[in-house]
Amino acid sequence: MGIGLMLVLVIRIPTSAQCDSHLKDDSYAFLQVVETYFDLIGESSPLYRGVIYSDRYRADKHPFLEENEWTLGTITYDGVYYPSVYLKYDLVNQLVITTYDFNTVYQLESEKIKQFELRGLTFTKMDPMKTPDNKNVFYELVHCNRASFLVSRRKSLKEVKDYQSLSTEYPEEDRYYILKDDVLHKVGGKRSVLTVLEDRKKELKSYVAKNNLLFSGNTKGAIHRMVSYYNSLP
User: Fold this and answer.
1) Phi first, then psi: what are they for 54, rounded to 5°?
2) N or C: which end of the chain has fewer CB within 10 A?
């Protein structure tokens, strides 16, 4: 009966907009119950089923987000919120993978993933019909409000010839987007951001000049500040 009660709690997840966080700080007791439940079922969890992930790469050259290390994160998968799961995000193949015993690695079904958090970053699924120029399934949700700032994180596989040897590189290319009025706009600099947020263009131009906001070398940070300021305006 106790396990049955915990299962009911586990499937209690938010159904509102993607801007909403999964759980508030006052849900600590709930999190403890959820983690206890998953400790009990162990590798019988639905996460550890299906396709086995297999990809060859060097330890120092890899397709994953930031580091090639298993990191505890959270994920909403097939309607269930998992608060403590080992995850990696393959930016080349756009796959989220997990493991239970650090030996067998499972490839999670992208269509069943609503959102996940990894390395302090939140990733949300976007409707592919809104992103015709991008094959990404998930986007880093940097700032969420009436105008939201999202980043497409992607790596490509590149073979580099060096004398008589052949090495593999995984260069990363980030693309930036603003979601406004349910339309996803690709942006890359001050001019494109001002075009998307043209209803407060005058205030934004003044803010950029006053704060000496530079895009070179810090495009993500500059766009984030502009979008945050836009959302702070009445």
Assistant:
1) -140, 120
2) C
